Amino acid sequence: MNNSPGNTARLLGAGLRALLVLTVICGVLYPLAVTGIAQALFHDEANGSEIKDKSGQVVGSSLIGQTYDLPKNDPNDGEEAARPDLKWFQPRPSNGLGDNSVNTRYTLILSGATNRSADNGAVGGACTKDAEEGTLCAQVLAAREAVIADNSTADHRVEPRDVPADAVTSSASGLDPHISPAYAALQVRRVAERNKLDVDQVGKLVADHTAGRTLGFMGEPRVNVLELNTALKALAEN
After folding, report:
1. How many CA atoms lie within 13 A of 102 on its CB side?
2. CA angle, residues 206, 222, 84, in degrees to nearest 5
3. What is the model's pTM?
């Protein structure tokens, strides 16, 4: 093996040239090419599937759910959870959502499911009022009572059988941006009343923002809550 200074210098030079060429190709040209293709062909997706209000301000992403809660007056008042702001359509329950987004506040907290089985807290194979506090059954029953109380109006009472599953259970990620058309429809009267809008107007808003099954057969019909609330805000301000 030739270990002369000249040969070593040539090897070092070749290595440095290879490093320079690969840096330009892999660190500059390739990222620029991929970014350019993404921006040209998938502009919205490449930029986070942003949703903008009528003023052009970004209010969030259509891929990540957000909460619509009333601000707490005192963070030390001992209240365990913020109360929902009932003038907005509410998303699925979750501990992993950020703040109300038809504004500039948006903080992603965490993502994850409860990991509790469907019969967690069940008594005799069914979820009853005797379910132990903190179990999934107790949480679902409490959520159902809250949905009934929040969405019943002076001239319409929500019945327990009217509450769909997604109104009382979170998704696997806890960040599902969609609700079912049934849950959106259940909230129409309350939202119309709180915003002093006609029920038919709000119902049409839901219908206009209801997406069908992907490719006509995959998944279920769904309503994107952020898109719906952004449209609701524009309607209420007219």
Report:
1. 22
2. 65
3. 0.77
Using the 8-state DSSP alphabet, how is residue 3 labeled?
-
- pLDDT of 115 > 50? The answer is yes
Round to whole Å and give the CA distance between 94 and 86: 17
- Catalogue the E-assigned strands of 166-211: 178-179, 210-211
SS3 196: coil
What are the residue ranges spanned by the domains of the chain?
Answer: 1-47, 50-237
Measured CA to CA, the distance from residue 226 to residue 102 in angstroms comes to: 8
pLDDT digits 0-9 by tens, 20-66: 999 999 999 999 999 999 999 998 888 888 888 888 888 888 888 88
Task: Write down the residue that tokens 């059988």 correspond to.
Answer: 161
Q: What single-letter DSSP state applies at residue 123?
A: B
Rounded CA separation 31/144 (Å): 49
Measured CA to CA, the distance from residue 226 to residue 52 in angstroms comes to 10
Query: Which helix (H) or strand (E) is 59 found in, with range?
Result: strand 58-61
d(CA 233, CA 100): 13
Q: What is the pLDDT of residue 102?
A: 45
